[in-house]
Automatic annotation (TrEMBL):
Matches recorded under CDD domains: AdoMet_MTases, RsmF_methylt_CTD1
GO molecular function: methyltransferase activity
Keywords: Cytoplasm, Methyltransferase, RNA-binding, S-adenosyl-L-methionine, Transferase
Alphabetical list of Gene3D superfamilies matching this protein: 2.30.130.60, Sun protein, domain 3 (3.30.70.1170), Vaccinia Virus protein VP39 (3.40.50.150)
SUPFAM superfamilies, sorted: S-adenosyl-L-methionine-dependent methyltransferases
Location of the SAM-dependent MTase RsmB/NOP-type domain: 1-279
Protein's UniProt keywords contain Methyltransferase: yes
Taxonomic source organism: Absicoccus intestinalis
UniProt-listed Pfam families: Methyltr_RsmB-F (PF01189), Methyltr_RsmF_N (PF17125), Methyltranf_PUA (PF13636), RsmF_methylt_CI (PF17126)
This protein's name: RsmB/NOP family class I SAM-dependent RNA methyltransferase
Binding site for S-adenosyl-L-methionine: C99, A100, A101, P102, G103, G104, K105, E122, D167
Keyword Lipid biosynthesis among record annotations: no
Family, as annotated: Belongs to the class I-like SAM-binding methyltransferase superfamily. RsmB/NOP family.
């Protein structure tokens, strides 16, 4: 292991070096965070983590568990949930997650919103698609997924956000284990490069935050240059920003008042979190756009499947999107998704989208749905058509009442509509463990 890295850690925690070194030998902590918007009566037998009320330590890979496929939980390193707990999102907040992929924190924020709205932005194109897929799986509806550089958001949405999360790209020291190849690329120069980039991102975040709004800055690195030093620079540059008490009992104080650090000895991997408040300044609203009228074929589809017509609509080419609240203007930005992608108008019919059947708000609303056995779930997740008597037409396929996709039934068989990219590989199977 790089001796310069270890010397720096020694200077941070001189009395705990032995415990730190042994933490590098063991595997990363794994966490399961339930999605309370879908899974209200979750009873989990695993131990809780100190970082979030909804989170548990797990010790096996559960990515192929049917409940995971249905968006009932999200898997992430446990202390990663600390930043959103500190952000203290309120149900009606307009929130921006500026560096959002793969979406652990965005989906955690979404679970805390009710009438609020979430803008999840990711700079990297491929990672933005993964973010979108996770938002869909978790059934988030009042949201948009953007793929932009943070500075591009400023001309459109300056002073519009009640809360902003800057979970910044960093040198990632907190996620490295002794034998990781990434550790070989560790350097002080890289830390300095990351610090510069973090400052640029924070400059945009400052302009996007409403007067009196709150911001959380977090990293998964120990490097002081990317943590307390960046915060000091931010306070010096913007005197109307102040650090405030994160008001949580996990972790330990950082090297600056009102900051939090998490070391592996604190039951999670390495993190830094700070909460900031903007003392005043302009307050604006996200610019809304007019709802688009929808045609009778689409209306009939909604009535058949939901028993009502969602209130707000948007249409791009033949694709129809719906939401419970007004759509936001996105002209000039690269918006991958806003609201729920309901489906497509194709000739004289409406072809639903996978996302339509994943909306957390509609779990108990879908009129056409059927429960599959675990063997059927496995077959369906491999893209197979299954023999399974059910209502005719488009139908949500469920595990224990929770939709994980849809198919088209002729009454006896269900034709598979699981998107190809979400299907299980031939040699993998659903996980049948009990939670
Ligand atoms: C720590 S990760 C975010 C993890 C995410 N918040 C989550 O909980 O799943 C930081 C993200 O910042 C993105 N990023 C990289 N360079 C960036 C830049 N210049 N501006 C904004 N984001 C950037 C990375 O692609 C990465 O997805």
């Amino acid at each position: 292991m790089n001796p310069d890295f270890l010397n720096r850690i020694q200077s941070y925690i001189p009395n705990e070096m032995e415990a730190f070194l042994s933490s590098l030998e063991r595997p990363m902590y794994r966490g399961l965070r339930i999605n309370p918007k879908k899974w209200q009566d979750a009873q989990i037998s695993f131990p809780k983590t100190p970082f979030s009320n909804d989170e548990y330590y797990v010790n096996e890979a559960l990515g192929n568990h049917p409940y995971h496929l249905a968006g009932l939980f999200y898997l992430q390193e446990p202390s990663a949930s600390s930043a959103v707990e500190i952000l203290d999102v309120q149900p009606d907040d307009v929130v921006l997650d500026l560096c959002a992929a793969p979406g652990g924190k965005s989906t955690q924020i979404a679970a805390k919103l009710d009438t609020g709205f979430l803008v999840a932005n990711e700079f990297d194109k491929k990672r933005a698609q993964i973010l979108l897929s996770n938002m869909e799986r978790m059934g988030v509806d009042s949201m948009m997924v953007l793929n932009n550089e943070p500075s591009q958001l400023v001309s459109k949405y300056a002073h519009c956000f009640d809360r902003i999360l800057v979970d910044a790209p960093c040198s990632g020291e907190g996620m490295m284990k002794k034998h990781d190849a990434a550790m070989n690329h560790w350097s002080v120069e890289h830390i300095q490069f990351c610090a510069k980039r973090q400052k640029q991102i924070l400059e945009s975040a400052y302009q996007l935050l409403k007067g009196n709004g709150f911001m959380v800055y977090s990293t998964c690195t120990y490097a002081k240059e990317e943590n307390e030093d960046v915060m000091q620079w931010f306070l010096d540059t913007y005197p109307d920003m102040e650090l405030v008490d994160p008001n949580v009992s996990f972790g330990r104080p950082g090297f600056m008042k009102n900051t939090i650090r998490i070391f592996p000895m604190d039951k999670g991997e390495g993190h830094f979190v700070a909460k900031l408040h903007k003392k005043g300044g302009p307050v604006k609203r996200l610019p809304v756009q007019k709802s688009i009228a929808i045609d009778s074929i689409t209306k009939t589809f909604f009535m058949d499947q939901l028993g009502f017509i969602p209130k707000y609509h948007d249409q791009q080419d033949d694709k129809i999107y719906v939401m419970d609240q007004s759509f936001i203007q996105t002209k000039g930005l690269h918006c991958l998704r806003q609201g729920i992608f309901a489906g497509e108008r194709i000739k004289k019919r409406f072809e639903p989208a996978h996302a339509f059947y994943m909306n957390a708000k509609w779990i108990h609303v879908y009129k056409q749905k059927t429960n599959l056995s675990l063997d059927e779930v496995d077959a369906f997740m491999h893209g197979l058509e299954i023999e399974h008597p059910s209502q005719k037409g488009y139908i949500a396929v469920c595990v224990d009442g929770y939709p994980f996709g849809f198919g088209k039934s002729d009454g006896k068989h269900i034709k598979n509509k699981i998107p190809k990219g979400l299907r299980l590989l031939p040699n993998s199977h659903i996980n049948r463990c009990c939670l």
